[in-house]
Amino acid sequence: MRCNVSPTITRIESTEFSYPVENVGYSDGGFSLVYEPEGEIERKLFGLRIRTDEGITGEYVGGNSPAFAQIHMFANHLIGKNPLHRERHWSEVKRALRKYDRMGMGPIDIALWDFAGKYYDAPIHELLGTYRERLPTYASTYQGDDNGGLDSPEAYADFAEECLEMGYPGFKIHDWGGEWLDTEKTVATVHAVGERVGDEMDLMIDPACELETWGDALKVGKACDEQEFFWYEDPFRDAGISQHAHRKLAEKLHTPILQTEHIRGLESHTDFVANDATDFVRADPEYDAGITGAMKIARIAEGFGLDVEFHAPGPAQRHCMAATRNANYYEMALVGPKCKNTQPPVYLGDYVDQLDAIDSEGTIPVPDGPGLGVEYDWEYIEANRLGGRVYE
Ligand SMILES: [Mg+2]
Fold first, then answer.
1. Which of 136, 258, 322, 339 could form a disulfide with 233 if both were Cys (CB 3.0 to 4.6 A apart)?
2. How far is the CA of 206 from the centre of ligand 1 (A)?
């Protein structure tokens, strides 16, 4: 609750921790997560706490190692500053990290928004301006495997049908990668899923930049055209950053292209759109400089008359989408028929990002408590601590 007009950041703590994910492994020769019976991987995440002289703590759990290495470059600068001056901090840190991708801004900005929500006793979506409180959700699959999970075009079609029966209005294929990369099998999967559920669901495909050539990207795109896919995302090995390649691809396809997940920054997103190199716009509050950065991207998309699709599930994404008209879907990733999502077990309340979290209408709620509206399990995080830093 609001106590004085000028709160001050007194201490910032980052904690690296790990947690296990069962029945999951890596694609053959690749880096992507797939179903693997009896498999188990250890995932690493970070917990961030921004303490203030109000006794209110801004919190966020997520992020990645490059982001937290960048946080180490500027966290001291924030001690003694007003946590409500987000635009000022955003601008200063953007300049300070100008040689890098500025990914470190995300977790800090999200934690500052969490502070603000607790300070004003309001959920973040209310501070942003609420547009909706239920979010239409699509099932976004694991990459394909060769382990008895999503291992064939029919397996994808079966799982899409299962998701449709659960109430999902949309389904996105992440196809095969690494040694399992097979363009013809992906084309067959686009047709199998399209023929099975295409009349009843919006369908998308994200090869996650695995396809080796622009020509392969065109082949898969032509299949998407035939099946009237809703979007086609990050197809090939430019790693998602070539404006020229995607403008050329868009000229040859009817299916809308979705790019900008792998470029960083407001101006870069704007240039991508202005150069006709994407149809849908991607934003992620973790990757794109926080809720502040993601909402700026959402508004430039709105200004161009386009839609923004927020990447990945999470409480910050839910608040952003709740405050955005021009967005179609919340991404429930990663899901599969035989293993659970990789989301960390760090929520004490009823917050959940799993396949069965939707209602029968295929929607998911927006947390309505103050700030992010989630309560983190710091005992679990501390019990699984790998290391950390304190700034004060
Ligand atoms: Mg993607």
1. 258
2. 6
Which tokens sit at 271?
């240039």
> Could you tell me the distance, in angstroms and rounded to a whole number, from the CA of residue 76 to the centre of ligand 1?
33
CA distance 271 to 245: 14
**Could you give the 3-state DSSP secondary structure of residue 247?**
helix
Site of tokens 């099946």: 227
CA 51–ligand 1 middle distance (angstroms): 34
Contacts of 228 (CB under 8 A, 6+ apart): 194, 198, 203, 255
Distance (Å, rounded) from C-alpha 208 to C-alpha 124?
A: 31
Distance CA 62, CA 68 (A): 10
Per-residue pLDDT tens over the stretch 350-374: 999 999 999 999 999 999 999 999 9
Spacing, Cα 218 to ligand 1 middle (Å): 18
Please give the single-letter amino acid code of residue 322: A
DSSP 30-50: SSSEEEEEEEEEEEEEEEEEE
CA 208 to ligand 1 center in whole angstroms = 6
For ligand 1, the distance from its centroid to the CA atom of residue 285, given in whole angstroms, is 14
CA of 160 to the centre of ligand 1 (A): 18
Condensed to tens digits (0 to 9), the pLDDT of residues 296-330 reads 999 999 999 999 999 999 999 999 999 999 999 99
What is the set of domains in the chain, with CATH numbers?
9-121+374-391 (3.30.390.10), 127-365 (3.20.20.120)
Instruction: Give kind and range of the element (H or E) at residue 135.
Output: strand 134-141
pLDDT tens across 253-289, in order?
A: 999 999 999 999 999 999 999 999 999 999 999 999 9
CB contact at 8 A, 211 and 183: yes
The β-bridge partners of 26 are 33
